[in-house]
Amino acid sequence: MQNPATAHSISDFAELPATASHGPLRIEYRWVNEATGNAPIAVFLHEGLGSIEMWRDWPQALCERLGMRGLVYSRPGYGLSTPRAHDVKWPVDFMTAQARDILPALLDALNISMQERKRMWVIGHSDGGSITLLYAAMHPGALAGAVVIAPHVFVEDISVESITQTKQLYETTDLRSKLSRYHADVDSAFYGWNDIWLNPAFMEWNIAGELNAIKQPLLAVQGHDDNYGTMAQIDTIAERVPHAQLVKLDACGHSPHRDAPDALNEAIAAFVSRQR
Q: Gene3D superfamilies in the record, alphabetically (predicted)?
């Protein structure tokens, strides 16, 4: 695969103005399944080391299954979006800022109306799942429903242990080279994610109390073999959001869209069809 600096000819870019929480940002985005015209939009939020390219063809396949258009974007620091300055550390509430400021600003920049947002589904994986939960809690009138895949609600020891191991792999194996295929500034992407998750202050991060505000339909999916989190994550969601539906997948790790795509797509399609 080519370096992302030259490979993403079909990506577009949105310019977001500076706010109190961030400077000017250039966000890489891509539409999928555009032929569906006025169909509802599914917005995809990637994992902590993800980007547009790391989703591969899953958003396309799911949107075709759902009859939706898809909006896929690389969060700041990832893919071809504005990189994180190497002397900047993500704050403990970085996911809150993504849900409160970045995603709404991107939707504004793309002229996605409030009527379209009311029909919009937000689908997030891992850190992107946490941001999705926060977005649903903060903007209850600006989505039709949400799907969270291997989300984090609080920090578990298994997460810290796996992220510590990933740092060792990044610094001692070819993992850095592999990830560089997906990010213009791979160290920006990796250490932005790794440093905050291994920051002792982040051990107290917990968004369970904010989930009570979620009113729209919510599906939470977790694999039994996830090495970045346990079922306690989505069980906590069910405690806080009684109308949430849970799906627990066998023989599936942290990335159900890669480990069990057929089962995941079936679960999402069945859930969304019940809400229409």
A: alpha/beta hydrolase (3.40.50.1820)
- Radius of gyration, alpha carbons of the chain: 17
Which pTM does this prediction carry?
0.95
Q: Is the pLDDT of residue 27 over 50?
A: yes
Q: Assign domain 4-275 one CATH number from 3.40.50.1820, 1.10.10.10, 3.40.50.720, 3.40.1190.20.
A: 3.40.50.1820
The per-residue pLDDT for range 225-246, each reduced to its tens digit, is 999 999 999 999 999 999 999 9
CA distance 41 to 108: 14
Distance of CA 192 to the CA centre of its chain: 15
Is 12 strand, coil or helix?
strand
- By the 10 Å C-beta count (0-12 exposed, 13-18 middle, 19+ buried), 253 is classed as middle
